[in-house]
Every structure is written in C-alpha cells, then in structure tokens.
Amino acid sequence: MIKHLVSRLGTLTVRNNATIAHLVGVGNQRIVAATATTTSVPTITQQQQQQQVYFSSQPSFSLPRPTGHPESPNALRKWRSHAVSLELGDYGDDDDDDDDDSLALSKTTNQTESWQEEEWELAQQVQEIQRQEDLKKQRWLENAKPPVRHSIIDERGRSYGRGGRKTAAARVWIQPGFGNVVVNQKDFVDYFDRMTDREHILAPLAATESLGKFDVMAIVHGGGLTGQAGAIRHGLSRALNHYNPDKYRPPLKRLGYLTRDPRKVERKKVGHLKARKKPQWVKR
User: Fold this and answer.
1) Where is it found, in Gene Ontology cellular component terms (predicted)?
2) What is the dotted CATH code of the domain comprising 159-255?
3) How much is the pTM?
4) Which of 106, 156, 227, 257 is the most exposed place for a label (fewest CB within 10 A)?
5) Are 189 and 284 in contact (CB under 8 A)?
C-alpha cells in the first residue's frame, strides 16, 4: 500500500503523535526515511537562547556570496549590524539629534508666538473697528430722534416770529385774542387792498385751524405789498411754531410755511433791456 502511494505521489508525509515519516521518491528508486521525534513545548530558556543566537553578530547560517566577491571573515557580520538587542533596550538618541530637536522646537515656538501675536493684534483691530461702528450707530440713533422743542412765550403771553420775502422784512407777535390783525398800526384790510395778499397772511391760521383764536400785530418794511404780505405770512408761521410746536409745527412744516422763500428779482444784464429782455436784433 505504501509503495503504491509513493509511486503515485512521489512524496508523502505521514504524521502521528509519536513519529514523522518522510517518504521520498526519486525516479525508480524509492527510499523510505523514518525519523522519530517527540513533540514538546519549548521552555523560556530555550526561547532566550534562540533570540540570542538570532540577534548575535555571528549568523547561524551562511549566505551565498555573489561571484567575483571573495568571502572574508567579517563579510557575514554586515548583514545584521543593524540589529538591536531587545534585552538591553538601548534606544537612546545622540546628543546631536537632541540639539537638532531643540532647535526645531525653538523655531516652532517662535513661529507659534509670532502667530499668536498677529492674532492678538488682529483681534484688537477688530474690536476697535466694532467700537467705532457702535459709536457711529449710537450717534445716528441720537440724531434720528426728534429734537425736544419748547414753547417760547414772553412775560406778556406773546410769541414772536421774524419773516422775510424778497426785500421785505416783517416782525410779528401773536397772543390769544379774537382774530384781530394789525399791520403797521393799521387794520390789514385797510393796508392790503388786494384779496390775494390778505389770503397770504391768513394762510398759516387756516392751516392750523386757529382762525379767530389769536390777535396778530405786525411791523413790516421794504419791498412791495406782495413781498410784505409774504414776509408777514412767514413771520406769523414762525410765531405759531414758537407758541405751540407740538400742535402747530407739523401742518406748517408740511405746507412749507416755515421755509424762507429764496427767490429774488433777477439783476439786469449789460446790453439787455431788462434781466432777460433784449433789444430787437437785425442781421443786416
């Protein structure tokens, strides 16, 4: 049976608990070699000896050298010159390596410190910009608030306003009364003949719905009747604003009665008959 297996397979290994049989077949000659070995667990002393033999400078086997290189007694030692003993545990670094590491660490530390300083400076700049923005916003909010206005009334219970229109200037006083209007110590009906001028003067009282509630006294000079009527209207509007700004200012401001009319007579130009009028031009 064994000869049949050897002839079929060439090599057969039969193992059991006590023996290991190597069956080797070479050509037509068959040789059966039996080697008896006992299975045993290696001890700690044997492992240490094996490690010492493995990590020793003298190898336990010989390696084939390339042709053309003669073998020398110390040639085989170079193969394991890099091995380190595990028992001794010599893992120390050289002093030069320590110096290089310390230099690299110092450079890294300096870079870290410089980076931290830059970050701190940037943070300070951002805080300063934010503070400026907050102050500007606070000023905007304060300016956006409507100013607090107070009534301006003298000891006689009168409010005063000064107005102008073209070259006319007027000073106006108002006080609670029955709606009498006096201009230069005359009734305004006698002073202004045209109805348009009278309507100009009474326009602020009509806008504030205070007709017949105040007596008006005005002193006006300069300009013509239209300019004087416009000056009185401007002064009367300012006087009403000073008397009660919370009540009378919004309608007067909305209608533009508190704004001085900047329009004036345009000057005459040289070569012109008037400000814009020119003489007749003939080509030939």
Assistant:
1) cytosolic small ribosomal subunit
2) 3.30.230.10
3) 0.53
4) 156
5) no
